[in-house]
Amino acid sequence: MPNQTKILIIYTGGTIGMITDVETGALKPFDFNQISEEVPELKKIPYQLETLFFKEPIDSSNVTPKTWIKIAGLIEKHYNDYDGFVVLHGSDTMAYSASALSFMLRNLNKPVVFTGSQLPIGVIRTDGKENLVTAIEIAGAKKNGEPIVPEVSVYFEYKLYRGNRTTKLNAEHFEAFASFDYPILANAGIKINYNYSKVLKLRKAPLQIYRNFNTNVAILTLFPGITHDFVRHFFNTPNLKGVVLQTFGSGNALSKQWFLDELLRAIRKNITILNVTQCKMGEVIQGRYETSEGLEKVGVIGGGDMTIEAAITKMMVVLGELADREEIKTALLRSFCGEITV
Q1: Taking Cα atoms as reference points, which of 86, 88, 32, 39 lies closest to residue 60?
Q2: Is 15 a catalytic site residue?
């Protein structure tokens, strides 16, 4: 059928692609060319489905920016041939990958839906089949001839989230993800109910892929009792260019002069510091309390309500593109694709 919706499924690795070897009882990746045999429900979906898969599946704990570049490259190569894309990925770092892809795929106007599972697809009680089937439905869903969710998203256990607002919450329950500071994009019950007002607007410009990552970045999580020696050595890490500073509450940190001096010394060495909260909900508002005024004065950038996954991947992309301090700050504070409330 010439007008049939076409969806490309990209398997990168992860639990969802595993079945049990009948001889050994061990889990092993299955041949995704035979995916309809493992998930016969796919035959009932009125879309044309095709699959691509990494020859060597990657455990999501081993994902790197090279993995993100590979996924983005596959989407770019096949962008004009498909109506939507489903990326099968291990759940442990899915929020990082979905965030990274959201910053890489500029002017995206087709759905890219990440999904996976907590149990292998070859296990009787797997959550993988429902996650996969519904992710495919969402990737192909249209209204008035246009895609309903033209952005990078994560679908897991009946909920669709903006990819760069997502955090893995649970390692045991099927409801593994949450989006604490942004509403879900859709809820899948008897029918899929879309939160249309919260989905990114369709962009008409041509797709652009950004591949330059600066991985000389790090995360510094504050805790009571953190020592001067530790902080000093941390900021003396060779080639360090960017730091995501995880602070308390609404962006608060210890107000000791030695700490502020170390931050100022780092910033004067052109190390960009972005402040995000350790809390699951809420945002950084530097200057609300005395314990965050010092951060503002020395030049730490307030990260608003960005997740840690969005903050670190956005910093990699921004530092990979820009060198000027003010341009970097402007970019980090700007919403590329709904990752921060402006």
Answers
A1: 88
A2: yes
